[in-house]
């Protein structure tokens, strides 16, 4: 059990994987949600570039800028006492290792992020950032910032070739030094295989119950957003009575491996 008066570190999260304790994670973008999520005892707060959609009302995450992410991350870190905070590097802010390092440094130095996350298998960039003392979270599977290249948010890793590519990229990212890996919308069996294969924690969204931890966009699981939700979202607000109760129900469901159920997962 971690001391609730101190911040969680990446080592604490890795120890949770070793101990078989599921890791809970939610997004937040402001101080009020950050304080509430933290008080319930969620392990990780992700300041996601999903802010572009749920805060700015844009159709994709591409609208979030680095200044937006610094602002939201600063609001979140100011209000939390315990949770580990990861901030997303938004679209086109990690196109070279040097540029990524400068932008990640802003998220850490100006906003207090403990780790940065970026999408895809940018192995050289991971090496470079980790060598500068910048912890990195990888993100594989569906890559929302590439929606205009791919054309949709369709589940990844369903063919043998694609599943093998994701496994190969995950191993290369781990070897390059990432401390955590988020996998989005991949078949549950593939996510299970990755969680068993990697030493670092694998955090799933739409990736089945066998990941080392789970993440959802908080506005989705509280049913605040009016858009049609993807299959992997559960409405934890339903019958909860309060936002705090809904977040607590999510935490318990993840810790007890009751969420995601098969109906929230992909084959
Ligand atoms: O931006 C975000 O909220 C994310 C999660 C969906 C993993 O990257």
List the helices and strands and how they pair.
Elements: H1 10-19, E1 23-27, H2 31-40, E2 44-47, H3 51-54, H4 66-79, E3 84-88, H5 97-109, E4 115-117, H6 123-131, E5 136-141, H7 147-150, H8 160-176, E6 180-184, H9 188-197, E7 202-205, E8 213-216, H10 218-221, H11 243-255
Parallel strand pairs: 1-2, 1-8, 2-3, 3-4, 4-5, 5-6, 6-7, 7-8
3-methyl-2-oxobutanoic acid (KIV) binds near residues 61, 88, 184 and 215.
Provide structural commentary:
The protein is of the alpha/beta class and 267 residues long. The chain contains eleven helices and eight strands. The protein has one domain: Alpha-Beta Barrel (TIM Barrel), CATH 3.20.20.60. Strands 1-2-3-4-5-6-7-8 form an eight-stranded parallel β-barrel, surrounded by eight helices. Helix 2 packs across helix 4 and helix 5 (97-109) crosses helix 6 (123-131). The model has no long low-confidence stretch (mean pLDDT 97). The protein binds 3-methyl-2-oxobutanoic acid (KIV).
């Amino acid at each position: 059990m971690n001391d609730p008066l101190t911040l969680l570190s990446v080592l604490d999260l890795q120890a949770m994987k070793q101990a078989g304790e599921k890791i809970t994670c939610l997004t937040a973008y402001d101080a009020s949600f950050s304080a509430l999520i933290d008080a319930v005892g969620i392990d990780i707060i992700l300041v996601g570039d999903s802010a572009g959609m749920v805060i700015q009302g844009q159709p994709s995450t591409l609208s979030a800028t680095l200044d937006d992410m610094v602002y939201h991350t600063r609001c979140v870190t100011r209000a939390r006492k315990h949770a580990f905070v990861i901030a997303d590097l938004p679209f086109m802010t990690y196109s070279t290792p040097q540029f990524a390092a400068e932008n990640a440094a802003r998220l850490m130095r100006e906003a207090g992020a403990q780790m940065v996350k970026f999408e895809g298998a940018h192995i050289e960039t991971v090496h470079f950032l980790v060598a500068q003392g910048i912890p990195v979270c990888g993100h594989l599977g569906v890559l929302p910032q590439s929606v205009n290249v791919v054309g949709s948010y369709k589940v990844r890793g369903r063919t043998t070739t694609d599943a093998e590519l994701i496994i190969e990229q995950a191993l290369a990212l781990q070897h390059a030094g990432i401390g955590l890996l988020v996998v989005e919308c991949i078949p549950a069996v593939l996510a299970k295989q990755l969680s068993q294969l990697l030493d670092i924690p694998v955090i799933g969204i739409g990736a089945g119950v066998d990941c080392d931890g789970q993440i959802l966009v908080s506005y989705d699981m509280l049913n605040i957003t009016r858009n049609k939700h993807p299959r992997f979202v559960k409405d934890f607000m339903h019958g909860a009575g309060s936002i705090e109760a809904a977040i607590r129900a999510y935490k318990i469901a993840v810790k007890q491996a009751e969420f995601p159920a098969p109906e929230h997962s992909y084959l």
